Amino acid sequence: MHFDLTPYLAKQKALDEDIHLRHGVDYASTKQRRFLALYVEVGELANETRCFKYWSDRGPGSKEKILDEYADGMHFLLSLGVAIDIAEAAYEGPALLPYENPTRGFHEVYRSIGELYEHYDKEHWTYAMEAYVRLLFTLGYNMDEAITAYLSKLAVNYLRQENHY
Length: 165
Hints:
The chain is mainly alpha-helical. It is 71% helix and 4% strand. It is built from 6 helices and 2 strands, in the order βαααβααα. Strands 1-2 form a two-stranded antiparallel sheet. α3 packs antiparallel against α5. The longest helix is centred in the first third of the chain and has 23 residues, at 27-49. The radius of gyration is 15 Å and the shape is globular.
């Protein structure tokens, strides 16, 4: 299995720089808020999949909405990677296996984010990103779909900045 997030780290860095200039912030001053935003976005993804709602018969949201929520989390994970000076992130190795079920996957993603918050280094960022990719596979999607959703949301995020979102 191979995927390369390096170009998307650069794209995220450019968006982050635009936001930093427009809002007078930097990575240090927004670290806690970016982590909280990542937790919230992962929660919104979980809510859209409805995988934990054992009390409900209603199914998950649309594929497009789930991928849109996934892309939101990807933005914050990439941003955190940029903040710890990760400029290259390519995975070459055995297939990242899906979790046994989405609920387990969400628990693992949350755990990995907590470890990244505590250690804030490349090793823990890589682990968190791999956990997030495994969740993608668990939900039945692939990297091409995630990248397409990320790029679409990137364009939306630039428009939002231009329109004082």
